[in-house]
């Protein structure tokens, strides 16, 4: 992994004397050139898929509510037909573990696939650059416009571009908040200027972050702010497929006519057109080898393949390959045999096992949770007829979206029974705290604490049942 050295500057950023050297290289604005091709098509397909999902899901409804809603105030998280509570935090942990293992797997197989095709920074940068090209033109026109003097046309184009950027950014912020406040309700609040302080803050914050990251910071996020660029090399090995330049075939590089024989001129296949640099969103030259700034977007592959087609040369001067494959001249079958190596198979097996276990557990989970709390104010007391009574508080959490009625029973001590109403009704996706009195006949149970078990069963669906342990105190 290489990085270009810092360049000397004629003056420091703070206005120092000529000849001094800056500690940091002054950023040069990058003007990526538009590119088409097979990989560009895949990249735009993922832009469409991710944004249709992101912008569309908040509008879906399920049982007269938002299909996906993270209701922080009510501490309920709705995922279509599933209702999760803070007690279900283990599922979020499982999803994070799955995401991390998937990242490790994809990186071990084909490098920075996530960065180049599906990362939000890449996706929104693509959208913002598309708007920029439509308003200001492609690379040369944008460079000429920025270098040109101020004019009414230049001001109008800049205002239009930024207005469109701000519109996309604000709608992105509104959509993000729409996952926490039903989006139809949120839009009505915005229309009446009645949004709450947190809703207002997050719409503006998320919109501003999108506007700044995709419109201005762009490659700076990938190069300096994202930690993945720094530790990706720990997940690479010599059998990881990466974007590579075939130096043996391309060097020595040089310009020539289409009809010229490169062998006769002593040249390689690279005509030194510079298109691979012009299309790169981070401004690197892939011909210098793998660099941490490379996000694996494959724009250079599409650009180079088009040049090879025009010159009548075979494609693949810049291509997906591995270090071992490039060094040994492996064909595709040899390459793929090494891609599916033990490391990749272990990642795949662990990822599949955790994914299957998590979603199986979610599918089979009982839509009822019960927390039992003993009334510690009175450990045990004698009531009428000499019966010994303990009082409990049972908290019912019904995660189903239909009202349910449950019957409470208890066992563990001879003659033990529920003295209060044994049936409890709980609203759909609701919770209820119920006091429950439990009694035993005198002389039953050992003095002190006795283990008992509560059984809660749905009266309409006996398959929905929960058993919980507790203790019954018999006075000495």
TrEMBL record:
Residues annotated as transmembrane: 42-62, 89-110, 163-180, 200-217, 344-364
UniProt-listed SUPFAM superfamilies: 4Fe-4S ferredoxins
Gene3D superfamilies: 3.30.70.3270, Immunoglobulins
Molecular function per GO: 4 iron, 4 sulfur cluster binding; metal ion binding
Keywords associated with the record: 4Fe-4S, Electron transport, Iron, Iron-sulfur, Membrane, Metal-binding, Transmembrane, Transmembrane helix, Transport
PROSITE patterns on file: 4FE4S_FER_1 (PS00198), 4FE4S_FER_2 (PS51379)
Residue stretches making up the 4Fe-4S ferredoxin-type domain: 261-289
One Gene Ontology cellular component annotation held by this UniProt entry: plasma membrane
Pfam families referenced in this protein's UniProt entry, alphabetically: Fer4_18, Fer4_5, FixG_C
Protein name: Cytochrome c oxidase accessory protein FixG
Source organism per UniProt: Quisquiliibacterium transsilvanicum
